[in-house]
Amino acid sequence: METPPPDGRSEQRRVDLDGRQVRVLAHPLRMRLLGSLRVDGPATATALAEKLGTNTGATSYHLRQLAEVGLVSEDADRGTGRQRWWQAAHDVSHFEPTDFDDDPDARAAVQWIQTDQVRLMAELAERWMAVEHHQSRAWRDAVGMSDLVLPLDPARLRALSEDLWAVLMRYRDEAVTEASDAKPVHVFLAGFPRLDERW
């Protein structure tokens, strides 16, 4: 969900999600719609339906649901007549899971959103691995995954996440020349306590 703006803006428009927003967002098509608008920029419901393999009616309905809670908005500058263009209202969504400890429905929605992010991460990795032998040597050598177990308390884990996020934002904001071999790259940031018999 935390994706940079498509048009090179350096400012980061962040929304701190409330309970209503996470409940609306916890839907597979709505997550994909918001993600597409954030990564690829404004689009019509028809274009989004074609891209995501769904129908325009369902796409329009779910865009309106996202708009009702302020996650997407109409792009009035692009709309003409009956053609409505939609845009993401923010570049980044943020929430603390404990924000919803007193709201069982929102807490369930947050769990669904996080589980869907893990599913998406695995799906994207598998899609790359299925075609990587057709890619250039430079890209195959640049792509990688790794893991490391560190002894951290909650404060240090949060600090580590914030430091890594700052590095990602620096790379996002650095200019990329037209002549470069730049492509959109999915970068996932996650840190979980190791659960074993001591927990």
Write the layout of secondary structure elements.
Elements: E1 14-16, H1 19-25, H2 28-40, E2 43-44, H3 45-52, H4 56-68, E3 72-74, E4 85-88, E5 92-94, H5 104-131, H6 137-142, H7 154-173
Parallel strand pairs: 1-5
Antiparallel strand pairs: 2-4, 3-4
Helix pairs in contact: 1-5, 2-4, 3-4
Give the CATH level 1 class of one domain: Mainly Alpha
CATH topology term of one domain = Arc Repressor Mutant, subunit A
Instruction: Tell me the series of helices and strands, N- to C-terminal.
Output: EHHEHHEEEHHH
Overall pLDDT confidence: 88
Our estimate of the beta-strand percent is 5-15%
Sum up the overall morphology in one term.
globular
Q: Tell me the total number of β-strands.
A: 5
The biggest beta sheet is recorded as:
3 strands, antiparallel
Task: Write down the oligomeric state.
Answer: single chain
Output the CATH homologous superfamily of one domain. Winged helix-like DNA-binding domain superfamily/Winged helix DNA-binding domain
**End-to-end distance:** 30 Å
- In CATH terms, what is the architecture of one domain? Orthogonal Bundle
